[in-house]
Amino acid sequence: MNFSKMKSLLANKRLTAIISSLIAVVALTVAGLFIYETTKKSVSISIDGEVQEIKTYAKTVKEILEDLNIPYRSQDYVYPDLDAEVTDQLTITFKTAQQVILNIDGNKKELWTTKDTVSEFLQENNISVKEQDKISVGLDEPIKNGMEIQIDVAFKLTVKDGGTEKEYWTTSTTVADFLKQQGITLNQLDEIEPGLDQELTDNSTVTITRVEKVIDVVEEDIDFAVVNKKDNTLEKGKKKVVQEGK
Predict the structure, then answer these.
(1) Do the Cβ atoms of 198 and 182 come closer than 8 Å?
(2) pLDDT per position as a tens digit, 50-96
(3) What sign does the dihedral 175-176-181-184 (CA atoms) show?
(4) Are the beta carbons of 189 and 212 closer than 8 angstroms?
(5) Radius of gyration (Cα) for the chain, nearest Å?
(6) Do 126 and 102 form a contact (C-beta atoms < 8 A)?
(7) Percent helix, percent strand, percent coil in the chain, to nearest 5
(8) Cα(31)–Cα(126) distance, integer angstroms
(9) If I label 112, which of 154, 168, 195, 210 is the partner at 20 to 30 A Cα–Cα?
(10) pTM
(11) Cis (ω within 30 of 0) for the bond into 194?
(12) Which percentage of the chain shows pLDDT scores above 70?
């Protein structure tokens, strides 16, 4: 074999080796990518009601939220919890907490909730609303961030009106407001205790004294007046009745 043929043979062997190496590298890369993808875990995550399916290498729920750039507070709802291990086919629920201003009889406080409706929010905070209470929003109204819920708690009071006595539920703060709310009218001479501008509290008693102005008509006999007139035609000492008295 001459030198030229040997040189050509070595070149072919070298090219074959390079190609084989490249094929091996590509094969390893493809295999690595395949293994990488197939070892990812499939996770379903619901974010404020919107569901998305993802594949992840995250080890915990917290890492998934961070990978998705989802900010979270301690008041937010996360299930399972942040430290829970991620497993294949895991379902995660995340709800952003909303701030609600609760005003009960003038006492305000700010609360966080992940509940959907006003009714669920009140139940969550162990607040019961009676039929007679006054609430500024409907119980089925959806919760919104910054919502203010005002509740005027009704209380009992007794009204003694003339000769009758009756119990009422009311949210009125003063006697005047209560009378207006119930459509109770006072006449000019009527008396009320406590006064119209007095504040009402639970188990208060309002007493109304009805005063009527009565005019009595009494018939009685009245003596008629006697009018004496001088008459020169009569003899001295004599009297004459011109007209009978009535």
Answers:
(1) no
(2) 999 999 999 999 999 999 999 999 999 999 999 999 999 999 999 99
(3) positive
(4) yes
(5) 49
(6) no
(7) 25, 30, 45
(8) 58
(9) 154
(10) 0.66
(11) yes
(12) 81
